[in-house]
Amino acid sequence: MDDADGAPARAGLVLGALIVGALVCNINLAVANVALPDIGTALDASQTALTLVAVGCTLGLAMSVLYFGAVGDRYGRTFMLKLGLGLTVVTAPLCAWAPSAPVLVVGRLLTGLAAGMAYPTTLALVTALWADGPRRVKAIALWSGVGGAAMVLGPTAAGALLERFWWGSVFLVVVPLALIGLVLVIVAVPAHANESTEPVDHPGGVMTVAMIATVVLGLSLVTAPGRLAIALALLVVGALVTVAFFRHERRTANPLYDLHVAARRMFWVPAVSGMIVFGSLSGAMFIGQQFLQNVLDYSTFRAGLAVLPAALGLMIVAPVSARLVVSVGSRITMLIGFAFIVPAFVVMLVTWREGASGVWVGVAYLLIGLGAGTALTPASQSLTASVPVRRVGMASGTSDLQRDLGGSVMQAILGALLTAGYASTFTSLVSSSPQASRVTDQTRSALLQSYSSAATLAKATPAFQDQIVAAARQSFLAGSDWAFLAAIVAALGGILLVVCCLPGHAEERALLAGYADADV
User: Is the model more confident about 408 or about 60?
Assistant: First the structure.
């Protein structure tokens, strides 16, 4: 590190390499959403399978970040970053040429594990290489803003590819970026930086993988037809593993997740509120892409372009958010972010109907981008500032969980509500139809499976095509209303949490100084 300004040598190039690494992971998280309708048609996938495709990458990332973050802290963060980028080059083609929905889900999961190696190390290296102060805050803001924007720009690139190529092409867009990032990391990033000498808590790491995987999969399957028993069993297992994990972490000499650090207000409050923020962004993209293509008949490219206001909002406020954190503190900055997120979902709930104007689509996405861009910088900064540098992998892993667990859980919950609302409304429409007695069980199952399945059936029955498509759109909108209402409640819960539990600016500075003294 260059002691004169608290930054590493060739700081710009180093930060660029780390941002490219984060870009690869963030784009991988987002590219599937715009292709979901095409995937549903090509692979005859149910709405539940599409939800698993959407959350597969975030699930793989979420279940591995804490474990891989600890491994990076001990054995080399730069090595883990290289390994993750290299594995991405291998897993992307598996997704691109997957012959079935289950294979695609597995490919997305492996892609998420590759991201779990790379993504936590990018923020950990920013924290380890930049000294605490305004320069680190600005670096984190740029890392956060560009990374968040990639979540939005990914669908645009994917939409352009889908205009000319098959659905699998969206998963190949990260390959050249991963290769570029790998070269930059090799050339510019130091091999070692403030790493720990403590042994890795491997049993705790295995438990975090099982804990997060079972909870997210259980939530994803809870409304799937005939899967309730499996979903409940997964959730019960997840709860039991969670209890065992916390007991283990209290007793072990070198915990993977230091519960004393995690109990700090400047750690757990930003962690939970950040999950809500990023989950809101992920959920908006997940449902929004299906709405634009299924209900508004947007092409994949136009649907990708429609989310650009969110990327614009994320990039505009990143430097502003950094200045706000320094001047007024994390509490006020996060509340400003939530003040954009709640209206965003209100706009979606009220205006996203059949024939909706593109203006309202853009307004909703701009608001969600402004909100996420404002709130994510203080969330990441607070986490990294409240832990000792030897445990920065724990902080960066938790920051990734904001994105990944928050995104997985929110997409799983919103996807479950979308599925339940869709099936409930379509069942009512079928029952009230004059042709209800002529609908076979097989036809009813196809209609209730997903919008894509209903659209495929509509093409095969021209006499009832218009009625089926109209009913599918009405059912999809009913399900999306359920999801948007849940997102509003979650955002209001985030506001309440920040107001009640996050300290003001003066107390925040005193707490962080106290943490630093205690860690020394």
Answer: 60
**Phi, psi angles (nearest 5°) of residue 2:** -85, 105
Tokens in use for 130? 């930049």
Q: Does the domain formed by 11-426+472-519 have CATH 1.20.1250.20?
A: yes
Q: Residue 201: pLDDT above 90?
A: no
Give me the DSSP letters along 108-133. Answer: HHHHHHHHHHHHHHHHHHHHHHS-TT
**pLDDT single digits (tens) 289-299:** 888 888 888 88
What is the chain's mean pLDDT, rounded?
A: 81
Yes or no: say if 352 and 480 are a contact pair by the CB < 8 Å rule.
yes
Q: How far apart are CA 270 and CA 282, in angstroms?
A: 18
- Which residue is listed with tokens 């069993």? 233
Residue 7, strand partner residues = 2
Question: How far apart, in whole angstroms, are the C-alpha atoms of residue 64 and residue 309?
Answer: 31
CA 91 to centroid of chain Cα atoms:
19
170: which DSSP letter?
G
Tracing tokens 């690869």 back to the chain, one arrives at: 24
Query: What whole-number distance in Å separates Cα of residue 396 and Cα of residue 122?
Result: 8
Please name the amino acid found at residue 325. V
Give pLDDT, residue 244: 93
Is residue 127 within 8 Å of residue 384, measured between CB atoms? yes
Interatomic CA distance for residues 221 and 333, integer angstroms: 36
Rounded Cα–Cα distance for residues 360 and 351 (Å): 7
CA atoms of 439 and 429, how far apart (whole Å): 12
Q: Where do the domains of the chain lie?
A: 11-426+472-519
Report the alpha-carbon distance of residue 394 to residue 70 in Å, rounded: 7
| Run of H or E residues at 421 | helix 392-432
Rounded to the nearest 10°, the torsion over CA 212, 217, 223, 224 is 180
Return phi, psi of residue 23, to 5°: -60, -45
- DSSP annotation of 9: T
Structure token pair of residue 103: 């294979």
Distance of alpha carbon 379 from alpha carbon 276, whole angstroms = 11
Q: Can you tell me the distance from the alpha carbon of 520 to that of 419, in angstroms, rounded to the nearest whole number?
A: 51
Contact 236, 205 (CB under 8 A): no
Torsion, CA 242, CA 243, CA 249, CA 252, rounded to 10: -130
pTM score, whole prediction: 0.72
**Residue 424 CB contacts under 8 Å (≥ 6 apart), including other chains:** 478
CA dihedral (357, 34, 455, 356) in degrees, to 10, reads -10
Three-class SS of residue 2? strand
- The Cβ of residue 405 has, within 10 Å, a number of other Cβ atoms equal to 25
